[in-house]
Amino acid sequence: MTDSDIEQTDQIEAQRDKTLTTVREHLSDVAEAVATLRNESYGKLTLSTESGYKYTLKHEDGSVEWFRRDDSGGTYIISTKGDPAATEVVDGMEGYDEWITSVNEWIRIQGEGLSSAEDTLAEMEWKIEMVEELSEQVAEVRDDVTEQLWDALDTVAGVVKQTLGDQYGKLNSEVDGTEWTIKYQDDGSAKYLKVGGDYPLGNDDPSPKQAVMVAKGFEEWVENINDWLERNEQEMRLTVDVSEVEAPVVDVQARGDSDEN
């Protein structure tokens, strides 16, 4: 890992920490509202959104104990066991703004019929600018992860081009039964990465879901590329009989495994 890799990793972690701090502050208000409206010392609030996102907030004495996205395999955004990886923050926060809308509606329903409903609702008005700030922070984390993936993808493209010797071309490999295709250009850089029928790395920025998907499968994909390079080297020795020729083996796991960042 180079100094630039370490610096980029530190930037991603710093942005993740900033986002989590803002989320904790925001959710502390939600936890306080839940405890007040239910008159309970501890409990959980599980709400779904119109788009199908589902989150659970657990509180104790009006403070946040943990916050989890339930529809995405149980991704913990806030946990007593430690902070999530940057990719988990991106994935977990995807439907957060919609969930806050559901929270507002829940508070409105809970407040109906209460003599103090007007005061309660006035105290618990959520500021939309805070949600927008969180969305921007999540986008920054996604952009940092995407930049790291592009750097690793360019490394792979350069090695594949050097091995094949063509000006430009493609290489296909499977990850968990899905075909991954990298296309490289004349200068050895990557043009795109195609996964199945999608282009998570191409002309457009990936969605948070696409960035997380690539980050999770990137290490296995690189291992497959390494296996291909080793097989290619053996074939060259059998047909050309030049044992001194060594196919380069790319090792970008530290840069591509964004789940560790």
Strand order of the largest sheet: 1-2-3-4
Strand content: 15-25%
The count of strands amounts to 8
Oligomer: single chain
Number of helices: 7
Radius of gyration of CA atoms, rounded to a whole number: 23 Å
3D architecture notes:
A hairpin with a 5-residue loop joins strand 3 (63-69) and strand 4. The chain has helices spanning 3-38, 86-92, 96-111, 117-123, 128-164, 208-240, 253-256, and strands at 42-48, 54-60, 63-69, 75-78, 169-175, 178-184, 190-195, 198-201. With 261 residues, it is an alpha+beta fold. It has 7 helices and 8 strands. Mean pLDDT is 77; it is low at 113-118, 120-129 and 239-261. The longest helix has 37 residues, at 128-164. It folds into 2 domains: 3-126, no CATH class; 142-260, no CATH class. Helix 1 runs antiparallel to helix 5 and helix 5 (128-164) runs parallel beside helix 6. The two termini are 13 Å apart. Strands 1-2-3-4 form a 4-stranded antiparallel sheet. It is elongated, with a radius of gyration of 23 Å.
